[in-house]
Amino acid sequence: MQQTVSLPKINFTEVFSTKNGAIYQSDSEGCWYIDFAGKLARFDYRNLLKLKKAVYQIDIEDLLLNSDKSADLEIIFICACDHCYVLSLLQIIKLKDLLQGTFTMLELNHIIFDRLHRIIS
Amino acid sequence: MKDIIRVKCLLSSDVETLLNQQIKKEAHSSAIYLSMASWCNRNGYDFSADYFFKQAEEERQHQLKIYKYVLDMGGTSISPDITNIKLEYNSFREVFEDALDQEISVTQSLKNIAARCQKEQDFITLEFLNWFFREQREEEFKARRALELFEVIGEEGTGRWQIDKHVGQIVYSSEA
């Protein structure tokens, strides 16, 4: 007899995407999924902020001007988070781009909530 | 799409950053006062040393107040690292000049946060800051009065001894 497995239904909303990756929000789980560098990783509120901080802190200009022979790889490791990224300089720029777009969209969503939903309802 | 960030935290990231800077500033103030207490004690100004110990404790309380507020609102408060604390002063008077400067800079940075809150319509943090503005009135008053003792009493003869004795007696008693 064939067994059917029912997976829990999770609805994603795309927050922001570029041609290099995308970030989705799951309302039911209260978290975000980042599709970047070949993997889909789940980030909760704290970890997303920590990722943002870690990525924004990287001095891209310094890495570009750096003439050392070392590889231009950065390891983005976030405390108490299951995921870590090992990214090249180009990927860092792309991830930063993705995060900046995401936070702008989240901010916009916040403004819409404040101005429309929270005042009218 | 839910507004998850707002659900988790009342503070905007800008206000949170400013409050964390203020936590650092208060901690720095507290450390400076402690250093002043040490200088006064080493140089025989016992009453002034006590005055600065008390001030150091007060600044520490201010720091904790903001620290807990940030946490209560769902933010992340950061325990600051404090370096570069002045150890030596050229004169008794310089200690009090620095103390007033310190208070003025704290007031200024609180004003800066309030301006940001007003811009964002964060009336909750603004209301929280009101307590600090009241406190700054007293702090600046006390620091200014202490410095004025140098003019009123004068440093000649037993002047500095007199000043030291009077520093601890400065009270701000405005009802306004």
From TrEMBL, chain A:
<protein>
    <submittedName>
        <fullName>Uncharacterized protein</fullName>
    </submittedName>
</protein>
From TrEMBL, chain B:
<keyword id="KW-0479">Metal-binding</keyword>
<dbReference type="InterPro" id="IPR001519">
    <property type="entry name" value="Ferritin"/>
</dbReference>
<comment type="similarity">
    <text>Belongs to the ferritin family. Prokaryotic subfamily.</text>
</comment>
<dbReference type="GO" id="GO:0008198">
    <property type="term" value="F:ferrous iron binding"/>
</dbReference>
<feature type="binding site">
    <location>
        <position position="26"/>
    </location>
    <ligand>
        <name>Fe cation</name>
    </ligand>
</feature>
<dbReference type="GO" id="GO:0042802">
    <property type="term" value="F:identical protein binding"/>
</dbReference>
<keyword id="KW-0408">Iron</keyword>
<feature type="binding site">
    <location>
        <position position="62"/>
    </location>
    <ligand>
        <name>Fe cation</name>
    </ligand>
</feature>
<keyword id="KW-0560">Oxidoreductase</keyword>
<dbReference type="GO" id="GO:0016491">
    <property type="term" value="F:oxidoreductase activity"/>
</dbReference>
<dbReference type="InterPro" id="IPR012347">
    <property type="entry name" value="Ferritin-like"/>
</dbReference>
<dbReference type="GO" id="GO:0006826">
    <property type="term" value="P:iron ion transport"/>
</dbReference>
<dbReference type="GO" id="GO:0006879">
    <property type="term" value="P:intracellular iron ion homeostasis"/>
</dbReference>
<dbReference type="InterPro" id="IPR041719">
    <property type="entry name" value="Ferritin_prok"/>
</dbReference>
<comment type="function">
    <text>May alleviate iron toxicity in the presence of oxygen.</text>
</comment>
<dbReference type="InterPro" id="IPR008331">
    <property type="entry name" value="Ferritin_DPS_dom"/>
</dbReference>
<dbReference type="GO" id="GO:0005737">
    <property type="term" value="C:cytoplasm"/>
</dbReference>
<keyword id="KW-0963">Cytoplasm</keyword>
<feature type="binding site">
    <location>
        <position position="103"/>
    </location>
    <ligand>
        <name>Fe cation</name>
    </ligand>
</feature>
<feature type="binding site">
    <location>
        <position position="136"/>
    </location>
    <ligand>
        <name>Fe cation</name>
    </ligand>
</feature>
<protein>
    <recommendedName>
        <fullName>Ferritin</fullName>
        <ecNumber>1.16.3.2</ecNumber>
    </recommendedName>
</protein>
<dbReference type="InterPro" id="IPR009040">
    <property type="entry name" value="Ferritin-like_diiron"/>
</dbReference>
